[in-house]
Every structure is written in structure tokens, then in C-alpha cells.
Design goal:
Layout (H helix, E strand, L loop, with lengths): L2 H19 L1 H13 L3 H9 L7 E7 L6 H8 L2 H4 L3 E7 L5 H6 L5 E4 L1 H9 L4 E9 L4 E5 L15 E4 L6 H11 L7 E4 L2 H10 L4 E5 L2 H7 L3 E5 L2 E2 L6 E2 L6 E7 H6 L1 H20 L2 H12 L3 H9 L2 E2 L5 H14 L13 H4 L3 H6 L10
Parallel strand pairs: 1-2, 6-7, 6-8
Antiparallel strand pairs: 3-12, 4-12, 4-13, 5-8, 5-9, 10-11
Helix pairs in contact: 1-2, 2-3, 4-12, 4-13, 13-14
Length: 365
């Protein structure tokens, strides 16, 4: 940059900026001029209000489906860059979320939008602010080593272990409807994920409806994947199916959000940055980052990551898939929620439109 240009910036932009946006933005202008940074980027960062709360807990399921971007944001320092001192609190299953949220323990969590509907039914004010992942491909039914199933109808009378209220139930229902199986004749045994593999190996259950890393561990123990949310191995060959969509998303306590919007926006920016990082780096690198915090071998994580889609976008496809998920959960025979919710009732996208408006492209939002 020539000396005259520099003087011009200092004489005009700096002084005018002082009048418009205050001293913090002016410092950003000077830094942009000196370091060659885009002026808009520098001023937008300088103009951000500081988080109202800097130390907080993030409750998350200890898996790569719902928590990959949370872990990456923590391990890569993206939360710290936003001025946050965030601690991840692990839970075993998202089915634990409603009771914890109702007790007031949870301010931030990563869970499905249908869980937001469950919480609304309980009168708990939790807001679903943005998706983080599409994890239908990681929801699986794994047959036991000694389970004989020659056709889907053979599942009638069998016992399947599953955490009560788990989203993977949708895959079972969809498979039954697709293959003419009477779902009411399948016996669902309420078991948390860590308890399912021992039960499967003992023969207490014939199959488990589960997600990774437990599904992969079940396969290593001698089980076999029968179908997933988007793949079927029923006929001995892999076939694409559309048995379920399931999301992982950012859910925040409503009163906390209203009182601390800058803190929540800081969390969102860190997660979006982490999502972009996941999608722009190799699975091998992401697996290495996740392995320690999740306590899952990196080689296993590389396989697990292939089954998931990481995105914060709210587009027409996402809204359409969520509409089906919410309709399923509101069915009287399923009963996750007392009514059929629609996306506009569970989404609260006003902060996402502030933080990353380009991510909201769905019609009507």
C-alpha cells in the first residue's frame, strides 16, 4: 500500500468510523488497513457484543452423530475464539434429555427436533436453533450372532433391545410397513445402549436397535447389520432405502436464550465453524480429533463418519424430512408427542438468520 493511500485511510475512514460505530470498530479499520484484512470482516467482528455468560456446560450424547461438531469446536478452540469457556457434559442417550431439561439442569444440548416437541409437551421451554447433522444412516438394527432371520417376517415374535423413545424406532416401523411385517408382534425391550450388546450376546434379545459406536461394536462381537435408516441388507445385498431421517441439532433453554443472546450466538458461530471444518478436512483427521474425547478408536470413527451428513443448513429438503419425522412421532400408535408438530412449531431460526442468513433457504422461513 502506498503512503498516500495509508494517509487517506487514516484521515477519512478512521475519523468517519469513529463517528459511526465507535472506537472498537475504528481499531478494526486500522488493523484491516495495516494487515490487509477485508474491512467488512474486521468491522463485523469488532462490532460483536461480548457474550453475557462465558462459562457454561454443553450436554451432549457421547457419539459422533450428534456431537462431532461440538467436539471439534472444543478441540480446535472455536469456542474459546468466541470468548467461551465451555465444558462438555456427556450423556448416554438423547432419550435422557427430556428429564434432564425438565429438571433445569440443561441449558445447551445437542438433540433432535422431535425431542423439542417432547419437551414442549412437558411445558419445558427449549428452543431448537439449528441442525448440526443428519444421522439416519447411523441408526441400525443389528441381529445377534445366533439369531436366525430368513425373511423380515421372522422378526415377528423376536425381542429387539432399544432405548424407549429412541428415534431408531422409525426405521423399524418403516421397514415393517415396507415388508409387510406386523410391528405389534415385535417385542421391544427397553435397554440403554451399553446394556444391549451383553444382552445380545447372552441371547436375552435377538437384535438391537441402536446407533454407532454401539452398532459397530455389536458387529465386531459377531452380530450383523440387518438394515439402517438408509441402507438395507435384508436380501444379502446393500440396497438404498428411505426408512428414516433423524437430525442432531442445537437446543437451548428458552429463558437462557432470551437473557443471553450474545452467548448463544457465540456458541452457534463456533459450531458452524466446526461444521465447515469437518466438511473441508479428511475423515482421518476428523476421526483423530474425535477419538480422545469420545473414547472411540480412530479407525472405527472413520467408518462412523461416512454414515453421517454434517450441515447447519435449513433448506427445503431438511424441512420436508423433519415434517415426516414429526408426523411419525405424533402418531397415536407411536406417541412420542401428544400431537403432530410441524417444523415451524419447533424451529426458532431468528438467531441463525442473524449469524448465518445464507444457511436458511427453506420456503416459509
Amino acid at each position: 500500500m502506498k503512503g498516500n493511500d495509508m494517509r487517506h485511510i487514516l484521515d477519512s475512514d478512521f475519523k468517519n468510523g469513529l463517528k459511526r460505530v465507535g472506537a472498537a470498530a475504528c481499531i478494526a479499520m486500522l488493523c484491516a488497513a495495516t494487515l490487509g484484512l477485508p474491512l467488512g470482516l474486521a468491522t463485523s467482528q469488532a462490532a460483536r457484543a461480548a457474550p453475557e455468560v462465558t462459562k457454561l456446560d454443553f450436554w451432549a450424547v457421547k457419539d459422533a452423530q450428534e456431537s462431532a461438531s461440538i467436539v471439534v469446536a472444543s478441540e480446535k478452540g472455536f469456542f474459546k475464539e468466541e470468548g467461551l469457556d465451555l465444558t462438555i457434559k456427556w450423556i448416554v442417550s438423547g432419550t435422557d434429555t427430556p428429564s434432564l431439561a425438565a429438571s433445569g439442569q440443561i441449558l445447551l444440548t445437542g438433540e433432535s427436533a422431535y425431542i423439542d416437541g417432547v419437551l414442549r409437551d412437558k411445558g419445558v421451554d427449549m428452543r431448537y436453533l439449528m441442525p448440526m447433522s443428519n444421522i439416519g444412516g447411523s441408526q441400525m438394527v443389528v441381529l445377534g450372532p445366533n439369531t436366525v432371520v430368513n425373511s423380515p417376517k421372522d422378526l415377528e415374535g423376536k425381542k429387539i433391545g432399544m432405548a424407549a423413545g429412541a428415534g431408531v424406532a422409525m426405521a423399524i416401523t418403516s421397514m415393517c410397513e415396507d415388508k409387510g411385517v406386523d410391528c405389534s408382534k415385535i417385542k421391544l425391550i427397553n435397554l440403554q445402549p451399553p446394556d444391549q450388546i451383553p444382552a445380545l450376546l447372552r441371547g436375552d434379545i435377538d437384535a438391537m436397535a441402536i446407533w454407532n459406536p454401539y452398532a459397530l461394536a455389536g458387529v465386531k462381537a459377531g452380530g450383523r447389520v440387518y438394515f439402517t435408516g438408509n441402507k438395507s441388507y435384508i436380501d444379502g445385498q446393500e440396497q438404498s432405502v428411505h426408512y428414516m431421517y433423524l437430525d442432531g441439532g442445537l437446543i437451548v433453554n428458552g429463558p437462557f436464550l432470551m437473557k443471553n443472546p450474545e452467548t448463544v450466538k457465540a456458541v452457534m458461530r463456533a459450531i458452524i465453524k466446526a461444521t465447515n471444518y469437518i466438511n473441508s478436512h479428511s475423515r482421518k483427521e476428523i476421526a483423530a480429533i474425535l477419538s480422545g474425547p469420545l473414547e472411540i478408536p480412530a479407525d472405527d470413527l472413520e467408518q462412523i463418519l461416512k454414515a453421517n451428513i454434517y450441515s447447519n443448513a435449513v433448506d427445503d429438503t431438511t424441512v420436508g424430512e423433519l415434517t415426516k419425522l414429526l408426523a411419525y412421532g405424533g402418531r397415536p400408535d407411536i406417541g412420542w408427542t401428544g400431537k403432530v408438530y410441524v417444523p415451524s412449531e419447533v424451529y426458532d431460526l431468528h438467531l441463525l438468520k442473524e449469524v448465518a442468513p445464507d444457511l436458511v433457504t427453506a420456503k416459509g422461513f
